[in-house]
Amino acid sequence: MTEAAMDLSPEFLAIAACPACHAKFAVDYDKTELVCTATSCALAYPVKNKIPVLVIDRARRTR
């Protein structure tokens, strides 16, 4: 998946934060996810139809 296919604006990525711990996100274009950068949290949130699903219950654990 390319950056354009996810279509997340740089402005959104600059202010987006993990709902669980408020850390910044890393973008995983291969899995179409936003991944929390906090090692204690590390939840991955799906991006569906170019819309991030920032619901903790929908996130997957990466660790």
Write the layout of secondary structure elements.
Layout: H1 3-6, H2 10-15, E1 25-28, E2 33-36, E3 43-48, E4 51-52, E5 60-61
Antiparallel strand pairs: 1-2, 2-3, 3-4, 3-5
What do these coordinates show?
By secondary structure, this protein is an alpha+beta fold. It has one domain (3-61): N-terminal domain of TfIIb. 16% of the residues lie in helices and 29% in strands. The chain has 2 helices and 5 strands, in the order H-H-E-E-E-E-E. Strands 1, 2, 3, 4 and 5 form a 5-stranded antiparallel β-sheet that branches. The protein is globular and about 30 Å long. It starts with a helix and ends with a strand. The mean pLDDT is 92.
